[in-house]
Amino acid sequence: MPTATGTFTITIRKRPWWLWILAVLWALLEVLFVQTALASARESEYRAAAISWTAVAVLAAAGILVWFLQGRSQTRAA
Q1: What residues contact 48, with CB distance under 8 A and at least 6 apart?
Q2: In angstroms, rounded to a whole number, what is the distance separating the alpha carbons of residues 70 and 66?
Q3: Mean of the pLDDT values across residues 18-45?
Q4: How far, rounded to the nearest angstrom, does the alpha carbon of residue 29 sit from its chain's CA centroid?
Q5: Does the predicted TM-score (pTM) go above 0.70?
Q6: Are 40 and 46 in contact (CB under 8 A)?
Q7: What ranges make up the beta strands (E) of the chain?
Q8: Are the beta carbons of 19 and 3 closer than 8 angstroms?
Q9: Which residues share a beta bridge with 8?
Q10: Residue 29 in contact with residue 59, Cβ under 8 Å?
Q11: 46: helix, coil or strand?
Q12: What does the angle CA 22 – CA 25 – CA 30 come to, to the nearest 5 degrees?
């Protein structure tokens, strides 16, 4: 963010420890659903594969949204 003198100030904030635990659990669930989708497609279970790919997409969107919104809420609070 520029200040009155034309210099830039960069503020770095740490994320809380519990958010990192949720991020690890999110990543593990993503891997699990991707493996399930690939295995289902390999076994010609296309309906199960489609459900798993949908779960991957929804979980990815939710995780990315939470990650970015958590950073914004810390910025507003400061």
Answers
A1: 36, 40
A2: 6
A3: 93
A4: 11
A5: no
A6: yes
A7: none
A8: no
A9: 2
A10: yes
A11: helix
A12: 125
pLDDT tens profile 3-16: 567 787 777 778 78
| Token pair belonging to 39 | 């295995």
The set of residues, in sequence order, having a beta carbon less than 8 Å from that of 1 and lying 6+ positions away, is 8, 9
Question: Measured between alpha carbons, how far is 10 from 5 in angstroms, rounded to an integer?
Answer: 15
Amino acid at 66: V
Tokens of 51: 């459900």
> Which amino acid belongs to residue 69?
L
The 10 Å Cβ neighbour count of residue 33 is: 20
The amino acid sitting at 52 is: S
Contacts of 23 (CB under 8 A, 6+ apart): 63, 67
Burial of residue 37, with CB atoms counted within 10 A of its CB: 0-12 exposed, 13-18 middle, 19 or more buried: buried
Q: In a 3-state reduction of DSSP, which class is residue 78?
A: coil
Residue with tokens 């991020």: 23
